[in-house]
Amino acid sequence: MKKVLFPGSFDPITKGHMHIISQASDIFDEVYVGVLQNLSKASFFFTIEERMEMIKQLYENYDRIKVVTGRKAVSVASEYGCQYIIRGLRNTIDFEYEKSIAEINQDISKNQIHTICLFADSTLSNVSSSTVRELFQLEEDISKYVEPSVKEKMLRKRR
Ligand code: ADP
Fold first, then answer.
1. What is the chain's Cα-based Rg?
2. 47 lines ligand 1 (CB under 6 A)
3. Of 1, 13, 107, 126, which sees the most CB atoms within 10 A?
4. Best residue among 10, 18, 20, 51 to mutate for probing ligand 1, ranked by most atoms within 8 Å of CB
5. In the prediction, which pLDDT does 107 show?
6. Residue 118 parent element (H or E)
7. DSSP tag of 86
C-alpha cells in the first residue's frame, strides 16, 4: 500500500491545500495530513488540535485521508509508514524552499523518505494561510479561499 504524508501548518487549511490533498489521493492509497508546528512561524491563529479537528471534519467521509500530528515531518512519515512526503508549489520561492527542505529530509531519513512536489491550481496559486488570516483580520470575504466550515470556525474564534 502506497502512503504519503502531507505535512504543513494548515493554519487554516485552504482550498489550495485541499487541491494538493485531492491530487495526492489520486496517486496514493492513503494520504496522511500531518498538522505540525512550524517553529519559524512565531504566531498562530488556531491550535494544533483545532486545526486537526477542522481537517478531520472536512474529510470525515474519506477513509483514505487521515489527520495526524507530531514534531518532525520525517518522524511522522516513518511512524505511519509513509515513504513519501508531498508538498505544494505555488511559485519559484516555494520551489527554492521546498528543494532545500526535501534535501534535508532525505538526508536525515538516511535516504528512506523522498519528497514529491505537486503544482498549485493556477486559480489558487496566490492563496496562503497567512493571506487568509490577514484578509480575515481586515474583515474581507475569505469564502473564495477556504471551505465554509473553516470560515465559520474563524468567525467563531473571533467572537
Ligand atoms: P508550512 O508552514 O510547512 O509551509 P503551510 O500550511 O503553509 O505549511 O503549507 C503546507 C504546504 O502546502 C507547503 O508545501 C505549501 O507550499 C503548500 N501550499 C500552501 N498553499 C498552497 C496553495 N494555495 N496551493 C498549493 N500548495 C499550497
1. 15
2. no
3. 13
4. 20
5. 96
6. strand 114-119
7. E
- Write out the three cell numbers for 60: 470525515
Interior/surface letters 66-76, b for 16+ CB within 10 angstroms, e for the rest: bbbebeebbeb
Instruction: Say if CB 119 and CB 89 are below 8 A apart.
Output: yes
- Beta-carbon neighbour count of residue 117 at 10 Å? 15
- Rounded CA-CA distance 50/52 in Å is 5
Cα(47)–Cα(61) distance, integer angstroms: 23
C-alpha cell at 117: 512536489
| Contact status, residue 124 vs residue 15, Cβ threshold 8 Å | yes
Handedness of CA 39, 45, 46, 47 (dihedral sign): positive
User: Where does 28-115 have alpha helices with state H?
Assistant: 48-58, 73-79, 92-108
Overall pTM > 0.85: yes
Please name the helix (run of DSSP H) or strand (run of DSSP E) that holds residue 87, with its range, or none: strand 84-89
Query: What are the pLDDT digits (tens) for 93-144?
Result: 999 999 999 999 999 999 999 999 999 999 999 999 999 999 999 999 999 9
Q: Which atom of ligand 1 is nearest to the CA of 124?
A: 23
- Residue 42 pLDDT exceeds 80: no
Whose C-alpha lies nearest to ligand 1, atom 20? Answer: 128
